Amino acid sequence: MTKDMLAKKRSRIIELLSTEELQEKISEPRNTGVAVSFPITRLLKNKRPEPLNGNQQSQLHVYCIRDAGYHEWCADIDRIPLDKGEDETEVYWDVILLTESQLLLPAVGGGELGSKQVYKGFQKHIVKRIGESLSRIVRQKKSTQDNPSTWRSLGATYYMVYLPLYFSDIIWCKSGSIYFHVFLPGSSQSVGDKKQSNEKEWLLALLELASSFDCQFLRLYLRRDDKNGVLTFLRNLNWIGGRLVPNEDRNQYIINSPSNDSSVQDMLLGDESFVILEFEC
Amino acid sequence: MTEVELTPRLRNDSTSLKFSLDGGEKITVSEQSEHVRNNDASHEQAHKLIFESLKRRIEAINGETCEPGDENSFFICDIGEVERLHRNWCEQLPRVQPFYAVKCNPDTRVLEKLSALKVNFDCASKAEIEKVLSLGVSPDRIIYANPCKASSFVRYAARSNVLKSTFDNVEELYKIKRFHPKSELFLRIATDDSTAQCRLSTKYGCELENVDKLLSAVKELDLNLAGVSFHVGSGASDFTTLYKAVRDARIVFDKAANEYKLPELKTLDVGGGFQFESFKESTAVLRAALDDFFPVETGVNIIAEPGRYFAATAFTLAANVIAKRSLKNHEAMLYINDGVYGNMNCILFDHQAPTPRTLYHNSQFHYFDFESSSRDTTLHPRKEKVSIWGPTCDGLDCITTEHYMEHDLIPGDWLYFPNLGAYTSSAATPFNGFEQVAEIIYINSLKDGI
Ligand SMILES: Cc1ncc(COP(=O)(O)O)c(C=O)c1O
């Protein structure tokens, strides 16, 4: 049930983004990737803080070779290329939900637990936490959130990255402070075995994106279901400097959490389906 | 196009090494007897001292009456071993200046020792450069060999004045032109690494047939090409690859000078992959290749990027058995207090298969029982079949799926893993402020006696 709801959202987003404008960009040979980013402050109706730089807008970025002679992410237009009449805010919420749902424990997605209530509960929880983040931003208060290096902390910016040469699915990302979290699609979503042979290229694209948002570390979440793929990947990437990050100790997390509504929702999230690597960027 | 002699000269001289040409291309070292292996008595590890240090530590821990699982694993690091390895390097490869691959083990004391021995450094990340510079090493002793450079990495190298760096594609050259145009560049060529355990070359490095593109970009961008580099991969069993790579490097040297009229290249970087066990063989092949293609008279400097050679045998890891699940008679799963997320990420990252040996069982030490375990039941029939797991209950955290142990180990016993210095503690080392998780006890067998 939860899985179905999320799958619907995902298809809707892809449909919304399949505008002619975007299609054109993707089909240009010198463009090898596109990304859409938005800071969560785009969700504020009126009290938006003054944009300080481009990264505080929603943006479409294109990974391309231009005059520089190497691939770089260029902020192409400072809005999401939606057709007129579409509600931008709704798209933002869906992207946030889809990104955060990468960490829903597998048992939550289907079966008994996957009921409509679970999904609604999860949605409410994320909306509430984003709301708290926003009011902190508006009041210019320091974040009391978890350590930004963990996936539990919400993003200040969310991203949909599309690297069609390597992955046929969207890559969901979020960043906060100096950390850029990337949830790679499952192995079935990689394009042939290109994912293996071109890992240097797609990793570089992600590192460049993260560093263009002033992040210092990229955390890559690789799905464990493809154990051999993960192992090959680890062996080949050692030299690039990836560091294996231990998974969260959920028992410890549960012991340390206060028992309230929010923490019950937090229990539905976990990182055990992933192997986590950290890279400098 | 210049003619390059591709066929290695047949040698039959006092070096006692012969090359036989097999199918016109395959070169084999024909005299590989056991006695040339490096693990001979002339280079014994300091077992007595290592054992004493292990024993002292474990007795102290036992005296502290901890519950099983409260202890940490710990390393013994013999700094004297590093120095002896360096002497051995200088004997076998007097022409080759090593740039130690910091990634392999960024232990501060090891780096300091190597620096004092005038070994230079190969860094693959910003954090590694920072660490080496913080030891007071001058940036001209660093080569930046990251094969996947984001622009920010190149900018960082420029800011830190690290000039030497490798490259293998045109885009990288454009980045370098823009952010670090004074770089001294090493064109990394691909090698045939099909026999290596860690196959990296096929991913990184430019195929010989594509070198022209790179040379013409160097020329067009007016960059400073200092030399050629390669890395044959680690754990190669066939050193033909090394010979061929030196030969290919010669082709690139000649091409750069004759076809592209670039200033004469000054340095050849022969990469890493050297292993203690096969050091005599690999270096004999390398010396022969250098004599054939880069004889001393050419004046070309030779550098290398060894990692595991300088680190593996200097470290011994001791780990405690924290739990046991008996499966059937003489078959069990042992859980120990270290694993792939701790000091044994070499299993995931580096194809290593650490050897567990019994250190402490039944109130007795068994360090010198070098046959206390075996991977093979037919060679050394052992009583106890075990799989060994790290503490995380995670399927990846497996140290060995099958080993046959002399002793029926139980929680509270200790195992040790010899030669575990390469690609082990790097994950736990100051990457972004993370400090070493394992305790390291330093000894110096050159000072304290073997
Ligand atoms: C380019 C390069 N140089 C040096 C090394 C060090 O290798 P080793 O530790 O096998 O000597 C590596 C290892 O992956 C490498 O990729």
Structure description:
Chain A is α+β, with helices and mostly antiparallel strands and 281 residues long. Chain A has one domain (2-280). Helices cover 38% and strands 20% of the residues of chain A. Chain A contains ten helices and nine strands. Chain A has helices at 2-17, 20-27, 88-100, 106-109, 116-138, 194-197, 199-212, 227-237, 250-256, 261-266; strands at 31-39, 59-65, 71-77, 157-162, 171-176, 179-183, 217-223, 243-245, 274-280. In chain A, strands 3-2-1-4-5-6-7-9-8 form a nine-stranded mixed β-sheet, sandwiched between helices. In chain A, helix 1 (2-17) packs across helix 3. Chain A is globular. The termini of chain A are far apart. The mean pLDDT of chain A is 83. With 450 residues, chain B is of the alpha/beta class. Chain B folds into two domains: 47-77 and 314-443, Lyase, Ornithine Decarboxylase, Chain A, domain 1 (Beta Barrel); 106-306, Alanine racemase (TIM Barrel, Alpha-Beta Barrel), CATH 3.20.20. Helix content of chain B is 28%, strand content 22%. Chain B has helices spanning 47-63, 79-92, 108-116, 126-134, 151-159, 170-179, 211-221, 240-258, 279-293, 308-311, 346-349, 445-448, and strands at 19-22, 26-29, 74-78, 96-101, 120-123, 142-144, 164-167, 184-188, 224-229, 267-269, 301-304, 315-328, 331-336, 357-361, 364-365, 373-374, 384-389, 398-405, 414-417, 439-443. In chain B, strands 3, 12, 13, 14, 15, 16, 17, 18, 19 and 20 form a ten-stranded mixed β-sheet that branches. In chain B, helix 2 crosses helix 3, helix 6 runs parallel beside helix 7 and helix 8 (240-258) runs parallel beside helix 9. Chain B is elongated. The chains are: A alpha+beta (281), B alpha/beta (450). The interface between A and B is large, with 37 and 43 residues. The structure holds pyridoxal-5'-phosphate. Chain B: The modification N6-(pyridoxal phosphate)lysine is found at residue 103. Chain B: Homodimer. Only the dimer is catalytically active, as the active sites are constructed of residues from both monomers. Chain B: Its main location: cytoplasm.
